[in-house]
Design brief:
Blueprint: H1 5-10, H2 14-27, H3 31-46, E1 52-57, H4 64-72, E2 76-82, H5 85-97, E3 104-108, E4 122-126, H6 134-147, E5 154-160, H7 168-180, H8 185-196, H9 205-214, E6 221-226, E7 229-235, H10 239-242
Parallel strand pairs: 1-2, 1-4, 2-3, 4-5
Antiparallel strand pairs: 5-7, 6-7
């Protein structure tokens, strides 16, 4: 059964939003490096020091992707979209602290709520896909992003892949990561339970590629990995390329 996006957003309540900045950096070893490299990959794809309007989907929490991109490219502007009010509030606080609200349009809702004729130079979808249940929901958000990108525009996709149970060694290493940060055995189990709640990551890198191809994107280049997590850059295909 497909998990509606509203259900996925409901997991990110005020409690989870308040702890997100710390928890995410434990759950994903290399959290800041992933966001920094995402900014670098987009800049390399678009060309250095060129103005750009970037769609940031799932921006709630730390707004780290915007902070990283803005530091690298002062002429980029952002549209930050997230369906969770508490998570978007947390992101807005980080944007305010980094003097970035003037460069960011903050939108509470979904990509589909944005104007159909919106045209972005690039987009990011970081830490979102594995929270959406079923391929249909994953395809929907990717198609919605694709429809609002210029032809050839780059997209960063990052998140967990593999069915968690299929990789017991990685899952155990994930547990050790929490223990490394001082969590007790009971706390480790609680943290893993919360992370795994309702999660449905693509089951392989090939599955990620298939989702992207089905939504009108080209082959993706992986540029970051950390246990279950990977990050890729792909680009929107033109109509002529897509149906050639």
């Amino acid at each position: 059964m497909t998990q509606p996006a509203t259900d996925a957003a409901g997991k990110f309540d005020t409690s989870r939003a308040n702890e997100y900045a710390r928890q995410s950096r434990i759950a994903l070893a290399g959290y800041d490096a992933c966001h920094d490299l995402s900014a670098c990959m987009l800049a390399a794809s678009l060309g250095q020091s060129r103005p750009a309007n970037v769609l940031v989907v799932g921006a709630g929490g730390t707004a780290q992707e915007i902070i990283a991109m803005a530091a690298l490219e002062p002429d980029w502007h952002f549209t930050a979209v997230d369906p969770s009010g508490p998570m978007l509030d947390a992101a807005t606080e980080h944007l305010l602290a980094n003097d970035l609200l003037s460069r960011t349009h903050v939108h509470l809702g979904h990509v589909e709520d944005l104007p159909a004729d919106a045209s972005f130079d690039a987009a990011t979808l970081i830490g979102v896909l594995h929270h959406l249940g079923g391929d249909e929901a994953k395809q929907q958000i990717l198609r919605s992003i694709q429809a609002r990108l210029k032809p050839g525009a780059p997209l960063i996709v990052a998140g967990n892949h593999y069915a968690y149970a299929s990789q017991p060694l990685l899952l155990q290493a994930w547990s050790q990561r929490w223990r490394q940060q001082g969590a007790t055995a009971d706390e480790v189990q609680a943290k893993l339970g919360k992370i795994l709640q309702g999660a449905d990551p693509p089951h392989s890198e090939a599955a990620v590629q298939a989702l992207l191809h089905g939504a009108g994107f080209g082959d993706a280049t992986r540029f970051f990995s950390s246990l279950f997590w990977s990050a890729w850059l792909t680009c929107k295909l033109s109509q002529a390329t897509r149906f050639a």
